[in-house]
Amino acid sequence: MKKLMILFPIVVLLAGCPGRDGLKMGEIRSIYINGDRICFTVNKQDVLTRYLLATNGQDYKVLLSADTVRLSYPDSCFTVNLQQGVMYGANYALNEKNYSYTFIIDKENNIVHPGR
């Protein structure tokens, strides 16, 4: 049952909200993470049009979200309080293409990619 409670928010995050075009899972592509600074892209030619960063699991919480933006680097970077031992999920669109990324910050502040 506990695994189901953890898996359900991940599935919802990756599938998006029913009844709207919302965030779609898309191809797996990492985001740039340096401490509490994350960038959905560091390429000035890329255009970020929507994004979502949320915690996964029992304490699901949206940390960053926007649906209709047009951002390029460095505006595609944000400061967010990332905690150790928490799984995060990101869904975003760059250049009209959907991407997703899941990661955990471990006890040594390393980025761990579940399932890889």
Architecture overview:
By secondary structure, this protein is mainly β. It has a single domain (2-112), classed as Immunoglobulin-like (Sandwich), CATH 2.60.40. Helix content is 12%, strand content 38%. The chain has one helix spanning 2-15, and strands at residues 27-28, 32-34, 37-39, 48-55, 61-66, 77-79, 87-94, 97-105, 111-112. The strands form 2 sheets. Strands 1, 4, 5, 7, 8 and 9 form a 6-stranded mixed β-sheet that branches. A hairpin with a 5-residue loop joins β4 and β5.
Q: Based on the coordinates given, report the CATH architecture.
A: Sandwich
Quote the average pLDDT. Answer: 83
Kindly state the percentage of residues in helix.
Answer: 10-25%
Radius of gyration: 14 Å
Number of helices: 1
Structural class: mainly beta
CATH topology: Immunoglobulin-like
Give the strand content.
35-45%
SSE topology string: HEEEEEEEEE
Question: So what's the CATH class?
Answer: Mainly Beta
Contiguous uncertain segments of 5+ residues: 1-5, 11-23
Query: Tell me about the biggest sheet?
Result: 6 strands, mixed
Supply the number of structural domains. Answer: 1
Give me the count of strands.
Answer: 9
Give the N-to-C terminal Cα separation: 24 Å
Based on Cα principal axes, name the global outline.
globular
